[in-house]
Amino acid sequence: GENVEQHPSTLSVQEGDSAVIKCTYSDSASNYFPWYKQELGKRPQLIIDIRSNVGEKKDQRIAVTLNKTAKHFSLHITETQPEDSAVYFCAARGRSNSGYALNFGKGTSLLVTP
Amino acid sequence: DAGVIQSPRHEVTEMGQEVTLRCKPISGHDYLFWYRQTMMRGLELLIYFNNNVPIDDSGMPEDRFSAKMPNASFSTLKIQPSEPRDSAVYFCASSLTQGSTEAFFGQGTRLTVV
Hey, which residues does A113 pair with through a beta bridge? Predict the structure, then answer.
């Protein structure tokens, strides 16, 4: 099945700086790559996603890039704010038996200090 | 739609007891996923269903775990007998059809086995 690796596991940045989280996946047939944000005690919620036919996508301060050849994708957060502090998960949706499973990385705990 | 609904929100049980977690997916969604979240292992995919049929249960840790989806609006995850190492937050998520679509998470069930 799909194996998703995520780095770093923890990240601390000053408010206003940028944060970058990187993920790799194993299944070249994977075609959908969402990023979820999970605040303490809450459910994971989608913040941005990218499909395999797109190399880059941006939504205000958040951007995601995808390199299909290298099988890695990254989340970029610019002008970080304290409310960006949370755990971020990358995921890849790939073929699993006769369906499509969504497998997650282990998460990155981001701390933005004022 | 009220989103994915899980019950109970919290469960505390004694080792050896049977535990049943419940999930109601978003109406019309044909994929349903069960995840277990722990600090050590992150979000692990346990099993997922497509059109009420279990597609891949390779993530189910042991025979003590079982899951069913008797109809499109209800799924259960059962642990029998429960053990302290089963303590975790269990999330249910659903999505619409295959390919590149967002998975919506329920609020999770925090299970503590003492």
Answer: A14
CA within 13 Å, CB half, B85: 6
- Separation between Cα atoms, residue B106 and residue B37, nearest integer Å: 13
Q: Which of A32, A97, A102 should be substituted to probe chain B, the one whose Cβ sees the most B Cβ atoms within 10 Å?
A: A102
Residues A22-56 have pLDDT tens digits of 999 998 888 899 999 999 999 999 999 998 888 99
Which residues contact residue B77 at a Cβ distance below 8 angstroms, ignoring those fewer than 6 apart?
A: B20, B21, B23, B34, B46, B47, B65, B66, B67, B90, B92
Q: What is the pLDDT of residue B100?
A: 60
DSSP-based three-state secondary structure for B102:
coil
In chain B, which residues have their Cβ closer than 8 Å to the Cβ of A101? Answer: 33, 45, 48, 55-56
Taking the CB of residue A93, how many other CB atoms lie within 10 A of it? 28
Closest-CA residue of A relative to B36 is: A104
For residue B1, the model assigns a pLDDT of 66
Among all residues of chain A, which has the CA nearest to that of B48? Answer: A101
pLDDT digits (tens, 9 = 90+) for B39-69: 888 999 999 999 999 999 989 988 999 999 9
Q: Is the peptide bond before A82 cis (omega within 30 degrees of 0)?
A: no
Indicate the SS3 state at residue B85.
helix
Question: What integer best gives the mean pLDDT of chain A?
Answer: 93
